Amino acid sequence: MREIPGETFLLGGDLPLNRIGYGAMRLADGPEPAPSATEAPIWRAPAGRAGAVALLRRAVELGVNLIDTADAYALGANEELIAEALRPYEGVTVATKVGVVRPSPAEWVTHGHPAYLRQQAELSLRRLRVDRIELLQLHRVDPEYPLADQIGALKRLQDEGKVRHIGLSEVTVDELRQASEIAAIASVQNLYNLSTREHDPVVDYAARHGIAFLPWFPFAAGAHAGPGSPLAEVAAEIGVTPAQASLAWLLRRSPTVIPIPGTSSVGHLEENVAALSIELTEEQYDRLSLSV
């Protein structure tokens, strides 16, 4: 696997990650026929399995060494696909998540019962075919159960040697602070991009405490990315795509940010990874930051 000098972050202080990862959620198909136009499509493994395997292997060839998945993606088939493509994971960290139930293609239901979290982690270990999950994330905090019990379930797995690092997804600063009192939190994965900035306080808190921040859906959308927008203007100035400029802004936003863009296109994958070499001037960064 290709290393990218100067563009790494030590997850948990001991796990070097290149600063653009890959979100594998897009490597899935929906039911046929789809029950509705709004139905969530992440339901089964992709029909084009060989292409998905090739894309994952190409990501690693490009230097991507963080692959993000979840037990809820395609009911575990996403984890099995990653194992088929990348095991024995030499130099590659696979992060997965537990805490969301998929009773139907259109439903994503939070479920944080400690016994369920432990069961799903055990199933992820089997599907990924590993003895230890390098980064296990709580997919969502479930208000029906004490946070201490949910984090405690992951901490118990860590104490047993089945989990290396613990992460959270879609949390506030207060929830992150509370969780950190129970176990060492190595990462946070929240929706965040140039045009969606509600989690600015979480990004700043993570930076101050050396916690990786993994923005999912890292691309600006809507008017922020359209023709004539500051993003389009900056992208044109430096000769890159708006998507690449979005990633470059994130990389400069905080030294602990590791975007995890997902795609089913090898061309887009290569474009995303190339954003690591893009440097925004201070004026360009400020212009984008103030455009929201």
SSE inventory with pairings:
Blueprint: E1 8-11, E2 15-18, E3 22-23, H1 49-61, E4 66-68, H2 77-86, E5 93-98, E6 100-101, E7 109-110, H3 114-128, E8 133-138, H4 147-159, E9 163-169, H5 173-180, E10 185-189, H6 200-208, E11 212-213, H7 230-238, H8 242-253, H9 266-274, H10 282-289
Parallel strand pairs: 3-4, 4-5, 5-8, 8-9, 9-10, 10-11
Antiparallel strand pairs: 1-2, 6-7
Low-confidence stretches: 1-6
Q: Which homologous superfamily in CATH is the superfamily? A: NADP-dependent oxidoreductase domain
Q: What's the CATH architecture?
A: Alpha-Beta Barrel
Q: Can you summarize the main beta sheet? A: 7 strands, parallel
| CATH hierarchy class name | Alpha Beta
Look up the CATH topology: TIM Barrel
| Rg value | 18 Å
How many domains make up the coordinates? 1
**What's the total count of β strands?**
11
Order of helices and strands: EEEHEHEEEHEHEHEHEHHHH
Specify the number of helices. 10
How much of the residues is beta strand, in percent? 5-15%
Distance between the termini: 37 Å
Mean pLDDT: 94
- Give, in spatial order, the strands making up the sheet with the most strands: 3-4-5-8-9-10-11
Sheet/helix structural class: alpha/beta
Q: Shape, please?
A: globular
* Helical fraction: 25-40%
GO molecular function, one term: oxidoreductase activity
Domain NADP-dependent oxidoreductase: 19-288
GO cellular component, one term: cytoplasm
Keywords: Oxidoreductase
